[in-house]
Amino acid sequence: MAFKLPDLPYDFAALEPHIDARTMEIHYGKHHATYVAKLNAALEKHPALAQKPVEDLLKSLDSLPAEVRTAVRNHGGGHFNHSLFWKLMAPGAGGNPTGALAAAIDKAFNGITGFQEQFSSAAAALFGSGWAWLVADASRKLSIVTTPNQDNPISQGLVPVLGLDVWEHAYYLKYQNRRPDYIAAFWSVVNWKQVAANLEAAR
Ligand code: MN
């Protein structure tokens, strides 16, 4: 199999009480695993494409054969998004960013509080299933965008620095319809070191 489910960098219960163990177990072991399986199935007859990094496929969706384009967009996007997402959280994380990341956020959003408010509002307002993102553009300017379904900003030439899954499967067992509570809890587990590394890699 070309694409593999990456190891989760912590135990299912590691993000408790903010993200519950049962949600992590199903989200990683069922949802993410299914995106990987369906991506592999879609590219079974396209071994050259199956050898490429998934981000390369998502950067050039228009160049893919029409019969696999939607499957790569949805299941490849799901694989790529969740692979990013697990690393963006960590036990005992949260707090505030530091260094160059903090300076970039201050410049773009007039401080970390302003950034968190704008990001939280965008994530809460997103209708249906999708993701909220902090992205860097080609000039390294930071902004907040949302994407529907499993789309990733990388398909629009943007670099995802921080992302939050707001599909109901990400929070429903613990938070039911209270998406804003899930978003608030996310700030307690954000792995700013990984966010800083993503921004650094975008430079
Ligand atoms: Mn998800």
Structure overview:
The chain has 2 domains: 20-87, Fe,Mn superoxide dismutase (SOD) domain (Helix Hairpins, Orthogonal Bundle), CATH 1.10.287.990; 99-202, Iron/manganese superoxide dismutase, C-terminal domain (minor pseudopilin epsh fold), CATH 3.55.40. It has a 3-stranded antiparallel beta sheet with strand order 2-1-3, sandwiched between helices. The chain is mainly alpha-helical and 203 residues long. Helix content is 50%, strand content 10%. The protein has 9 helices and 3 strands. It is globular and about 50 Å long. The mean pLDDT is 97. The structure holds manganese (II) ion. Manganese (II) ion binds next to helix 1.
Structural key phrases:
single chain, about 200 residues, mainly alpha, minor pseudopilin epsh fold, about 10% strand, binds manganese (II) ion
Summarize the structure.
The chain has two domains: 20-87, Fe,Mn superoxide dismutase (SOD) domain (Helix Hairpins, Orthogonal Bundle), CATH 1.10.287.990; 99-202, 3-Layer(bab) Sandwich (minor pseudopilin epsh fold), CATH 3.55.40. The protein is built from nine helices and three strands. It has helices at residues 21-42, 47-50, 54-59, 66-87, 99-109, 112-125, 172-175, 179-186, 192-202; strands spanning 130-136, 142-148, 159-165.
